Each structure stands twice: as C-alpha cells, then as structure tokens.
C-alpha cells in the first residue's frame, strides 16, 4: 500500500498503543488517519501479558474488551511467595463495586495487537508497512502542517503526528524532546541488591517436563535469593502447543553477569534453579522444574524515563510572528518507560492512546476552520491539558514500579547498625508483608493501584 501525500492524522507505530489510538480517533469522528510502522509484521512474541481493569474499560469504549476477555485468562489475585509463606498481595475481586472487570487479564501482547488490528481493519483505517520515519520538518507552504520524511524518500504532510514508535522514538528525537529518568537516576549495568535496583533482567516463554505443583497453576511472584522471579501460566491462545506454556522472568544476580541476547535453555534453567520455583519450597517439598522447550526469550535493561512533554509543535518565532508547525504528540513507550513490575507499561500506553481520541477531537473542533498560526497557543489548550495529565499519570506509574522493585529487592544479608544492632531487611520485609496482607483493606488498596482505576 502506498502512502498518501497528505493526511490529517499520522500515527507512527502500529503496536497496541498506535492501533488503540487509531480506534479511539475513529470513534470520536476522526476518519482521515494513516498508521505506519517500520516493520513488515507486528510482534509474534508474548511480551506484555497483563491487561488491567482500567485498560479494559478504555478498550470497551473502542469495542475490543470482550474479544480480549474471550481468549485471555482472568486472574483474580496477585500472589507472592516469600520463601516460606504464600501471600495474597492484591485481591482484584474486591473491586467489583468500582469496575465490571475485577481481575487482571492474562493475554499475550501479540494477541492483543491482533485483535486491535482486526478492529482497525474493520473500521477501514489504513495501516501501511514497512514504512520507516526518519525525520520531521515544518511544511514550507503551510506552517500548520508537518512534513514527515521516510527512509524510502516519500513524504507525508500531516496536521497531527502521533509518536507511538517505542522507547527509541524517531518522532520524539526529531522534535528534540528530552527523555530521562524523573529522579535523575542513571542505569548501571549490574543488579545491585544493596540499593534495591535491578537493571539486567530476562523474560521467556517456556514449557516444563514435569507436572507442576498446584501453587504454580496460577500467577505467582517469587522472592528468593537476591532477585525477584515471575511465573505465569499463559492462555492456550498464546502458542499452538500441546501443554501449558509459562511466562518466566526475573532480575539477573550480579554473579551471573550480563545475560546473552536470547537466553538459551541452559541459562534460563540456571535462573529457575537459582531464583525461581527451583529455589523455593512449595507444598512442603523442594520444587525441581526442568525446562523442556523455550518458545521465546529476551533480555532487557530495567530503567525509567519520561519525556519532558507529550505535546509540542515544530514552531519558532521570527520577526514577531509565531509559526506553529503541525502538532506532535507522544504516547506509550515513546513518552514513558519503566520496569515491568506490576505489568503497567502497555496498560498505561493504551490508556494514553484512547484518552487522546477525545482530546484531539476537541482540538479539531476549536481549530476548524484552520486559524492563524498565532492563535494556536491559545487554542492548543485541549492538547496541552491532555499532555500534562498523561505525563502526571506516567510519573505516578514510574514511582509505583520503583517502589515495587525496591520492595522486592530487600537485602537478604544481615546489616549491623552502630556495630551492635543486627537488621535483616529481607526477614523484616517478609514480616511486615505478612501483617499487611492479612487485612482485606490492604489487599484491596494494592489491587486498586495495580488496576489503574485510580490512575486513568
């Protein structure tokens, strides 16, 4: 499919965030939309697998929630094993008075993307692949438009450019928007359990040779050794396999060094034995799990960053005259990234995208017909308010994921204070966790935060 010369709204990135944005815009009456992506095909791996209540509510408004629920697994609780005791940290069933989705939905990202893509095609929105954006500039004949430059040499004129093109966003870089940790932290190359950070981690989808204990038939977060470990059964829709596929993941202890790009079975097995179910006792016995097959694996660095703004124009002031340039907006990983703790990333991006539909439709209504460029500073308020609100939500989620990771990385060794007071932070954490999770109000509060219902 060829690119048009001119379009009102260009979305760069056809992942779940970009597709959700296209659906929201269409729902709000914006029909002149083109979505482009640098790759011929979308992701074929599971990657993000959790869809929370607030995200399902947003997806319901664009007609996709029911289709996702039909193929996903509804997980009612978030459970944690501290090495000796099983805790229910978050009880999503306690949210029934606040949402019709009192659960976290386990569904692979590529299935989410497929369902959103089918709805986009049903709506008649154009998705063009592979088309790689390499730059932006103000159109020399119409300062209300942006020229979007492609690697192929093609150019599209767009009134609105939406960057949904990931953490290395070309759209963001072309605007010169800074992207950094809100606390000024610089990621290191190792796991440092002394200060509660994990910067090297892996995710993988695997199968095991042995039948698993009943405790592993549902999502479980394991705290053992000096690194947290995640274990989640995936729905049958994830892979065409005879048997259950499991998502495993965890931080890499410093002693193991940096993981290889696509960790093989031997590396994953070592991690399972060291920090996963193989390192703890479930049902009273040591649980030895042997990986029989790896379907997908990846390594990544865990760090946080957020764009200085989610909305700008490629404008400048010259001779007292303000030249606006087209509007440029950022959503999803192009706007914010953080650790995968709590499964917040894709959820926040999708909610960015769907909320943008209403804001952009409002902006169109106050700037139609097209007004003088000097008026845009006043009339851009709907987009600026959207951007400020979404950025605050991003900061809130970054803070939440940092707290979760710091909690999981309590130091296992005893520290002596003043030379006479021994404190084992791991044991103290587990003690406090046991008391806190014994109260239903605590479990409900944790579910509220993770669900996104208080951060929409």
From TrEMBL:
GO molecular function, one term: FAD binding
Keywords assigned by UniProt, alphabetized: FAD, Flavoprotein, Oxidoreductase
InterPro entries attached to this UniProt entry: FAD-bd, FAD/NAD-bd_sf, RIFMO-like
PROSITE patterns with a match to the protein in the record: PROKAR_LIPOPROTEIN
Residue ranges of domain FAD-binding in the record: 7-197, 323-363
Cofactor: FAD
PANTHER family according to UniProt: BINDING MONOOXYGENASE, PUTATIVE (JCVI)-RELATED, TRK SYSTEM POTASSIUM UPTAKE PROTEIN
Record protein name field: FAD-binding domain-containing protein
